[in-house]
């Protein structure tokens, strides 16, 4: 049996960032629960830097494992961006992208609720709505739907909140609530941003209508020998996430959603839907169609993709002081909106949807430039051995 608290200490002693060490060990624990393996497989995987379940998930062999991003090395690389990563908290990002042709990529920002409950009215707060304790409710009456999300982390444990007022009925994350529940939610908003709710394109709503499809696109700055040439960017991974009937319809795979890869150059879907094994009653994480609506996407294309791709590349050039961006995007009827940009997004199940990361020359060159190969899975294995009881 693994003593995970002791393993956390060992991982931190090997130099992993404190917060990331916590995530790494928790993910390992979940992996071992979802993918029981024999001792030989466990040792083989950990010595190569992978969670043991990746052997079955990716189909790892001695011949192909070097094509896949190992979990240990990826976590040890944090942070991949330097001090400019502070640009990417959700509130700062709105200001950073408010120029140079990037303005349309961000939703309207109405309100920031401080940690001490004070309201800070943001640039898109309607001037005609009185700035008092009822501002938020009057804003909801006018807009119909609002997004309330933590500026960083999952402040207060609420996470993402979709608040609606339709025909006099309040809804929170698609479930009807009363005024008392609404007031309770509002009273727990701290370090929260209230923004416009962005509606997905009708073609995406046909796949799953109860929550918005979000794209996850990871972009990396290409290494260059001539320090004075303009920066260029390459796509590392690109996939679309759809909600399901599991857990209220959230699109995140960790909450029960499904994902499917697509080709960054063409916007064409490729492969099957993927979901976390924890949500697979039959143990099969590959699905030929959406589990609820039975929509099939293989061979079809994302709507508005040429415009979306153009805007992604404009954003990368605008914030080119950063090296690595995990963009979360909603495709709308007339373009796109950025939900947020992550500085070190997860890559686990993405390598099923999109294929192995390190077979792409640009991705391999980028991670090599960040010294991916200076970390050894043997260190992870030795730490793991010390924590067996």
How would you summarize this macromolecular structure in one to three sentences?
The chain has 389 residues and is of the alpha+beta class.
Write the layout of secondary structure elements.
Blueprint: H1 4-13, H2 18-34, H3 39-47, H4 54-59, H5 71-76, H6 90-96, E1 109-113, E2 119-121, H7 135-143, E3 145-150, E4 161-166, E5 169-172, E6 175-177, H8 179-187, E7 192-196, H9 202-205, E8 214-221, E9 233-242, E10 258-262, E11 269-274, E12 286-287, H10 305-318, E13 324-331, E14 336-342, H11 350-353, H12 361-369, H13 377-386
Antiparallel strand pairs: 1-2, 1-7, 3-4, 3-7, 4-5, 5-6, 8-9, 8-13, 9-10, 10-11, 11-12, 13-14
Helix pairs in contact: 1-2, 3-13
CATH topology of the largest domain: D-amino Acid Aminotransferase, Chain A, domain 1
Number of helices: 13
Q: Report low-confidence residues grouped into runs of 5 or more.
A: none
The CATH architecture name of the largest domain reads: 2-Layer Sandwich
How many domain regions? 3
- How many extended strands? 14
Q: How much helical structure, as a percent, in the residues?
A: 25-40%
Mean pLDDT: 94
The rough form would be described as: globular
CATH H-level superfamily of the largest domain: ATP-grasp fold, B domain
Q: For the record, what CATH class of the largest domain applies?
A: Alpha Beta
Order of strands across the main sheet: 2-1-7-3-4-5-6
Structural class: alpha+beta
Strand content range:
15-25%
The Rg value, from CA coordinates, equals 22 Å
Report the span from N to C terminus. Answer: 5 Å
Give a quick account of the main beta sheet: strands, pairing sense, barrel closure. 7 strands, antiparallel
**Order of helices and strands, N to C?**
HHHHHHEEHEEEEHEHEEEEEHEEHHH
